[in-house]
Amino acid sequence: MQTGRHLYVVADDEHHLGVLQADGEQPVQLVRLLPSDLPQDKEQRKRRKPDLEALALLPPHAAWPHGALLALGSGSRPQRCRAVLLLLDAHGAIAGEPRVLDVAALYAPLRERFGDLNIEGAFASGTGLHLLQRANQGAAVNACIAYPLADIVQWIAQGGALPPATITPFELGTVQGVPYGFTDGAALPGGGWIFSAVAEDTPDSYADGRCAGSALGTVNADGTLLSLEPLPGAHKVEGIALLPDGRLLMVTDADDPGQASALLEWRAQAASDSISAGISAGSSRAR
Predict the structure, then answer these.
(1) What is the mean pLDDT of residues 226-252?
(2) Residue 239: exposed, middle, or buried by beta-carbon count in 10 A (0-12, 13-18, 19+)?
(3) Which CATH entry fits the domain spanning 2-286: 3.30.460, 3.40.30, 2.120.10, 2.60.120?
(4) What is the pTM for the complete model shown?
(5) Domain boundaries along the sequence of the chain
(6) CA–CA dist 9, 55 (Å, integer)
(7) Residue 105: partners with Cβ closer than 8 Å, 6 or more residues away
(8) Nearest to residue 117, comparing CAs of 129, 131, 107?
């Protein structure tokens, strides 16, 4: 996620937000989101982690005149039904202390709909806040859950009655017999959106599994899937950010605390307006 000169990365097994400068000249800085520290033991860490999987940029509101970042837990376990709100200043930098939100009420009707709830991506467009439900081997259902933007922002700010959601299911196919599942999304000009998807060989939203492949796809403003293009290599892409110049940044997750995540850059070979019709050519490089 980019705001001004700042890039923000949320991690599912950390209590911190990663902050980078867009020019890449400074090392990653960590901003604490939640108190205390997680255990170093992998299994204990997995049980206790907040599973913050999605990061969305909210538009200005009376309570945050320069916009805000919203980090969302996946909802796959009770302790993962939290969100963290971070207000921004006029330059896109974090202003003030993080606010921890209980989003159990938001997730309760979604859990009834999907059973194995796993919110992995979130992004705001001109009219809505979109949450992406990720499929797995045991529940191969991907969906985009869209809320009217002004109404859901008001709910985040003040609570009250939840606005109605529009739910659109997606069939993304499989690779090596493993279904693709949404991992993140970003708005495109004109109302469409771009997304990342991973085929992870796991029976549910809790267990990790072998990555059979990653892909990028596009959806138009009417909710129609336009493209799904496999990415080269064995990168497990779990986060994307579309920059103003048309470049797409991607973050990987190896599910291994001993292996650092990679920041990848995708350069489309066509003009930026062709991204809206689906990225069909390009190259990626790690940096």
Answers:
(1) 90
(2) buried
(3) 2.120.10
(4) 0.90
(5) 2-286
(6) 8
(7) 162
(8) 107
